[in-house]
UniProtKB/TrEMBL annotation:
Family: Belongs to the UPF0213 family.
Protein name: Putative endonuclease
Organism whose genome encodes this protein: Tenacibaculum lutimaris
Taxonomic lineage: Bacteria, Pseudomonadati, Bacteroidota, Flavobacteriia, Flavobacteriales
TM region positions: none
GO MF, one example: endonuclease activity
C-alpha cells in the first residue's frame, strides 16, 4: 500500500486519537504497533488503525492531515463512525514482513 495516506490511530480504550500521514501505510502501522518511535502515539499506546484515506499526491495527504488536526475530536469521531462504527483495528490480520 505505497500511496500517500492519512491515518487515524487510537488506543485500546478509544480515548486518544492520533493523526498521521505516510507514503507507506503498512510499514508505518507496523512501526506504531512495534513501538519503533518514542513519540505521542507510543506514549499514549495508539496502535489501533481505525481510519485511513488514500491520495494521489503527498501534498493532498498533508493538506488533509492539517485539516483533520485543526478539527474537533467530535469531527474525528464522526469520520471514524461513518466508516468503522465499531472502531475495529483495520490492520487486524495484516502480515508485517519487513
Amino acid at each position: 500500500m505505497k500511496k500517500p495516506c492519512i491515518y487515524l490511530l487510537t488506543n485500546k480504550n478509544n480515548t486518544v486519537i492520533y493523526i498521521g500521514v505516510t507514503s507507506n501505510l503498512i510499514k508505518r502501522v507496523y512501526e506504531h504497533k512495534s513501538g519503533k518511535h518514542n513519540g505521542f502515539s507510543h506514549r499514549y499506546n495508539c496502535d489501533k488503525l481505525v481510519y485511513f484515506e488514500q491520495f494521489s499526491t503527498m501534498d493532498e495527504a498533508i493538506a488533509r492531515e492539517k485539516q483533520l488536526k485543526a478539527g474537533s475530536r467530535k469531527r474525528k469521531e464522526n469520520l471514524i463512525n461513518l466508516e468503522n462504527p465499531d472502531w475495529l483495528d483495520l490492520a487486524e490480520g495484516w502480515v508485517f514482513d519487513f
